[in-house]
C-alpha cells in the first residue's frame, strides 16, 4: 500500500443495517458482502457479533465467504463482546476486531457512568485483550468530535500502546464541520506520540448533510481509512456514502491526490443491490447513483451534451457502471444471446437458475416492447431472491374498476397448490387478503408498500417492496414483474417467507387454509 491509498471500510452490514427497517437476513448479507468484494472495498464490517445470534452467524458466514477483504466485527469495550467478535471473525482470511468506547464527557457521564480514568483503564484492558486474540485491532473513540482534545489524545495513545493498528475518530452525531473535522485529524496525528504506529480513520454521520465533506476533510487532514456505507444508509440521516467518497477522490485527484481500490464500474450494481434488499429507494437526485444523476433535461444542457458530453458531465455514466446500451434484447433473442447478456451484466447463474430466468425473460419480452438492461437486472435479481422460498406465487387474477376489486390467487406452499378468491377495497387490498386467507398470519401488519418503475414507459416493469411487522420483528420483501399486481404478490410472499423463517416455523400444516 502506498501512502496515498485510502482504505475503504464498508459498514453497510453493520451501521447501515442499524437504520430502522433496513435489516437483512443472512442470505442477503452474503449477497451484499460478495458485491462489496467485487466493488473492491478493503474492509467489510459484517455486524456486531454479540448483538444477536443472527448477527453472529452473519459475521461468521461473511468471514468464511470473503476471499480478499478484511472482515471486522464491532465489539463494545467488554471482554465478552470482544471474545464473541473473535469467535465470529476468526474464520476470515484477514480478521479484524473493532472495539469502541465513548470518550466525550457527556457520553462517559450519562451513558457509561464512568470517570475518564476508568475509560482509559477500559481502553488499555480491552484493546490489549483483543490484540492477544487478533493481530488486527481497530479502536474507536465514540463521539470523538465532542471529546475534550487532551483526553482524546491520551485515549488514542493508550489504544495504540495496547495494540490498536487503526484509530477511528467517529463523528457519531454528525456534529462536525469540514474545518473542525480536518483539524481534529491534523491535531491528533501531530500530537499523539505514537500516532505513526496506526492508521487514522474517519466515520461520519450525515445529520447536517456534511458526512462526505467531513470525510474528505479528514482525508486531507491525514486519515487513510474511511468508513462509509452504500447509498449512505445508516443510523438517523445515515453515514457518508461510499460511492460519493470514491468518485470525489477519483474525479478530483487534482486537489485530493489519493486513490482507492474501488472498481467504480461496480458502484451502480452495489447501489441497486442494497436498495433492492433493504427496500430503501435511492432519491432520484442523489449524487452518483440517483436515477437523475446523469439525466439532462434542459434544452441548453442537452445541446451541450450532444456537442461534447464534458460540457455538463464531470464523469461518465459508464464510469459508475450505468449501462449505456439501453435497448438490448427482444423476443427473438435466444439462449446464447441471453447468456452473453447475463455475463456482460456480471451474472453467473447455475443451470436451473439460468433456465428459470430465461423462461421469465421470454415472457417479459412477449409482454413488453423493449427489454432494457435494467429490466434484465430486475428480473434476475428477483429470480435469485426467491430461490429458497417455500411459498411461491403461481397465478394472479385481478378484477378491478370503479366497484370493489376481486382477486383469485394460486400459491404453491411446499409443493401443494392452494387457491383463494377474495374481495377488497382495491386490487392490492384484495390480493393481500387472498395471501392472508391461504397462509393466515394475523399478528403481522403491513407497514409499508412501495412501487417503483424499473424503466420509463407504460409497459415498464414494476418493482414492489413491502415491509411486514410481527411482534417487533420486521421483514422486507420485494418482487418484480411487468404486471404491478404480480410484482405485489411476489413482494408480499417474499416477506412472508422470511417471516416464517424468522418464526422458525414451516408454513404448512393447519396454518394453511384453502
Ligand atoms: O457512529 C459511531 O460512533 C459508530 C461507532 C460504533 C464506530 O458507529
Ligand atoms: Zn456510526
UniProtKB/TrEMBL annotation:
Enzyme class: transferase
Domain Pyruvate carboxyltransferase: 6-268
Pathway: Amino-acid biosynthesis; L-leucine biosynthesis; L-leucine from 3-methyl-2-oxobutanoate: step 1/4
UniProt keyword annotation of Metal-binding present: yes
Family listed: Belongs to the alpha-IPM synthase/homocitrate synthase family. LeuA type 1 subfamily.
Role this protein plays: Catalyzes the condensation of the acetyl group of acetyl-CoA with 3-methyl-2-oxobutanoate (2-ketoisovalerate) to form 3-carboxy-3-hydroxy-4-methylpentanoate (2-isopropylmalate).
Identification of the protein by name: 2-isopropylmalate synthase
Biological source species: Alterirhizorhabdus solaris
Gene: leuA
Amino acid at each position: 500500500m502506498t501512502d496515498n491509498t485510502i482504505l475503504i471500510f464498508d459498514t453497510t452490514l453493520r451501521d447501515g443495517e442499524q437504520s430502522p427497517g433496513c435489516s437483512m437476513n443472512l442470505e442477503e448479507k452474503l449477497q451484499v458482502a460478495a458485491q462489496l468484494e467485487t466493488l473492491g472495498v478493503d474492509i467489510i464490517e459484517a455486524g456486531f457479533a454479540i448483538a444477536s445470534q443472527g448477527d453472529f452467524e452473519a459475521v461468521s458466514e461473511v468471514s468464511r465467504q470473503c476471499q480478499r477483504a478484511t472482515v471486522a466485527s464491532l465489539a463494545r469495550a467488554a471482554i465478552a463482546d470482544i471474545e464473541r467478535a473473535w469467535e465470529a471473525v476468526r474464520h476470515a482470511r484477514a480478521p479484524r476486531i473493532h472495539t469502541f468506547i465513548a470518550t466525550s464527557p457527556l457520553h462517559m457521564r450519562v451513558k457509561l457512568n464512568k470517570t475518564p480514568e476508568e475509560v482509559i483503564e477500559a481502553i488499555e484492558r480491552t484493546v490489549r485483550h483483543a490484540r492477544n486474540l487478533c493481530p488486527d485491532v481497530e479502536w474507536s473513540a465514540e463521539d470523538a468530535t465532542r471529546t475534550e482534545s487532551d483526553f482524546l489524545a491520551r485515549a488514542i495513545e493508550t489504544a495504540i500502546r495496547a495494540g490498536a493498528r487503526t484509530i477511528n475518530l467517529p463523528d457519531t452525531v454528525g456534529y462536525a464541520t469540514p474545518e473542525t473535522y480536518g483539524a481534529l485529524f491534523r491535531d491528533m496525528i501531530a500530537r499523539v506520540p505514537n500516532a505513526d504506529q496506526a492508521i487514522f480513520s474517519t466515520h461520519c454521520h450525515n445529520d447536517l448533510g456534511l458526512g462526505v465533506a467531513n470525510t474528505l476533510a479528514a482525508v486531507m487532514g491525514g486519515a487513510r481509512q474511511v468508513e462509509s456505507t452504500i447509498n449512505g444508509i445508516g443510523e438517523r440521516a445515515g453515514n457518508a456514502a461510499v460511492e460519493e467518497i470514491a468518485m470525489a477522490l477519483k474525479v478530483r485527484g487534482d486537489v485530493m491526490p489519493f486513490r482507492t481500490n474501488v472498481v467504480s464500474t461496480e458502484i451502480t450494481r452495489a447501489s441497486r443491490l442494497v436498495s433492492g434488499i433493504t427496500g430503501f429507494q435511492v432519491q432520484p437526485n442523489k449524487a452518483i447513483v440517483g436515477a437523475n444523476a446523469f439525466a439532462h433535461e434542459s434544452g441548453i444542457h442537452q445541446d451541450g451534451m450532444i456537442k461534447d458530453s464534458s460540457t455538463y458531465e464531470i464523469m461518465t455514466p459508464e464510469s459508475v457502471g450505468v449501462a449505456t446500451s439501453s435497448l438490448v434484447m427482444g423476443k427473438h433473442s435466444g439462449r446464447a444471446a441471453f447468456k452473453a447478456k447475463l455475463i456482460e451484466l456480471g451474472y453467473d447463474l447455475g443451470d436451473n437458475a439460468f433456465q428459470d430466468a430465461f423462461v421469465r425473460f421470454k415472457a417479459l419480452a412477449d409482454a413488453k416492447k423493449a427489454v432494457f438492461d435494467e429490466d434484465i437486472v430486475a428480473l434476475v435479481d428477483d429470480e435469485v431472491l426467491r430461490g429458497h422460498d417455500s411459498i411461491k406465487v403461481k397465478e394472479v387474477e385481478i378484477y378491478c374498476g370503479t366497484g370493489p376489486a376481486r382477486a383469485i390467487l394460486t400459491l404453491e406452499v411446499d409443493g401443494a397448490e392452494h387457491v383463494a378468491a377474495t374481495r377488497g377495497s382495491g386490487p392490492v387490498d384484495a390480493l393481500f387478503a387472498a395471501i392472508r386467507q391461504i397462509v393466515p398470519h394475523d399478528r403481522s401488519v403491513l407497514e409499508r408498500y412501495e412501487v417503483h418503475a424499473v424503466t420509463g414507459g407504460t409497459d415498464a416493469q414494476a418493482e414492489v417492496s413491502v415491509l411486514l411487522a410481527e411482534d417487533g420483528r420486521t421483514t422486507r420483501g420485494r418482487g418484480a414483474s411487468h404486471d404491478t399486481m404480480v410484482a405485489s404478490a411476489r413482494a408480499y410472499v417474499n416477506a412472508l417467507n422470511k417471516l416464517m423463517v424468522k418464526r422458525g416455523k414451516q408454513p404448512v400444516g393447519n396454518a394453511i387454509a384453502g
